[in-house]
Write a structure and sequence with these properties.
With 365 residues, the chain is α/β, with parallel strands linked by helices. The protein has two domains: 227 residues, Aspartate Aminotransferase, domain 2; 121 residues, Aspartate Aminotransferase, domain 1 (Alpha-Beta Complex). The chain has 13 helices and eleven strands. The strands form three sheets. A seven-stranded mixed β-sheet has the order 1-9-8-5-4-2-3, sandwiched between helices. Strands 6-7 form a two-stranded antiparallel ribbon. A hairpin with a 2-residue loop joins β6 and β7.
Length: 365
């Protein structure tokens, strides 16, 4: 069987080298040396400042919302993983969905502008599949309406736009270090703040609001700390991140070549790099995508409807005000993600693309 995803595992000996350092200090959590080293190495690798490691990507988003004291509504995309909107709802912020762009599949700036109301406190776009949003348009919208812009960049590890990290755009950007991501620490995540003041408040909040210098509780807080054991895995993976990304990008490019004129793909940001995070393919209609999904499954190949359903159609959100999202709803019904991970081979990709063509045309030719 070929799964849709498979976590990258560094050599066990490499991981245990980091774990031996954890054991030697008997320091398992509370911003230990592994977390501190991971933070510094990630800031250097990604070209960012004010990076705060946390326990997972969902907490990263929730922490950002708390730092900015968001209330009311946030305009966001319905074409994404559920955590993008549930993290808002969990903090008492109503997700107000705006439709996505037909080409990039990302939150549409024009639709976002129409969705902004007097209750809007933020815009929360997602770099879907690692494909950067129109960051300049959202910066302009944020300035015009005095709104915070917080990017869910869970898919965008290592991506650059115009030569700089996509994580440097917005008031904050969040990452997920879940096991299925390009870079992972089994579970984990990070928030990157534009402002050092916001970063310092987040550091305080992530330790229950306790000022470690004085021992006084000076702010509302929660526990979002990343453990030393998770950070050790992150460091072991980071040691090989260039090879991981190069291989994934090579597979992505092979897919694109072999499926040219067979499927539709999101139009990638013209000034952006790629990281091989996902291999999305879109078909003419829902029926065609189901035929391919079933045809792959019969050959032991697992694809996934990523993302389905369009979040504005979920029962918990349908009673809340949202603009129509026909583009997102259409894409959700006919877009699949094909297998893409480090252990996948070029031969595997050929097997998968042949299976796609066979499902569509009755043969691989």
């Amino acid at each position: 069987m070929i799964p849709v995803n498979k976590p990258y595992l560094p050599a066990f000996s490499k991981y245990t080298q980091y774990l031996e350092r954890v054991y030697a200090k008997a320091w398992l959590t509370n911003n230990g040396p592994m977390v501190q080293e991971l933070k510094l190495r990630l800031e250097e690798y990604l070209g960012v400042k004010n990076l705060l490691p946390v326990a997972n990507g969902t907490l990263a988003m929730q922490l950002a919302y708390k730092v900015f004291d968001l209330q009311g509504e946030a305009v966001t995309t319905p074409f994404t993983f559920i955590a993008s909107s549930s993290s808002l709802a969990w903090e008492g912020i109503t997700p107000r969905f705006a439709d996505v762009d037909t080409q990039s599949y990302n939150l549409c700036p024009l639709a976002t502008a129409r969705a902004i109301s007097d209750r809007t406190s933020a815009i929360v776009p997602v770099h879907v599949y690692g494909n950067p949003c129109d960051v300049h348009a959202f910066a302009e919208l944020g300035q015009q309406h005095k709104l915070k812009v917080i990017y869910d960049a869970a898919h965008a590890f290592g991506i650059k736009v115009g030569g700089q990290s996509v994580l440097n755009f917005g008031d904050a950007a969040t990452l997920s270090f879940h096991a299925t991501k390009v870079f992972h620490s089994v579970e984990g995540g990070a928030v990157i703040f534009n402002s050092s003041d916001d970063y310092e408040r987040a550091v305080l909040m992530t330790n229950f609001g306790i000022d470690t210098k004085t021992g006084q509780i000076t702010d509302s807080g929660i526990n979002t700390k990343l453990s030393e054991v998770h950070a050790a895995m992150g460091l072991a993976v980071l040691d090989n991140i260039d090879a991981i990304m190069q291989h994934r990008v090579a597979l992505f490019e092979q897919y694109c070549h072999q499926l040219k004129d067979v499927v539709v793909q999101p139009a990638w940001h013209q000034q952006a790099t790629t990281n091989g995070a996902y291999m999305p393919v879109t078909f003419d209609d829902a029926t065609q995508s189901s035929i391919v999904l079933d045809g792959l499954a019969r050959q032991g190949i697992i694809a996934r409807r990523y993302f389905s359903p369009s979040l504005n159609q979920l029962p918990q959100y349908t009673q809340r005000f949202t603009d129509p999202c026909p583009v997102s709803e259409s894409l959700a019904s006919r877009t699949l993600c094909l297998p893409l991970y480090y252990d996948l081979s070029a031969t595997d990709v050929t097997t998968i693309t042949d299976a796609v063509k066979q499902a569509l045309y009755g043969s691989a030719n």
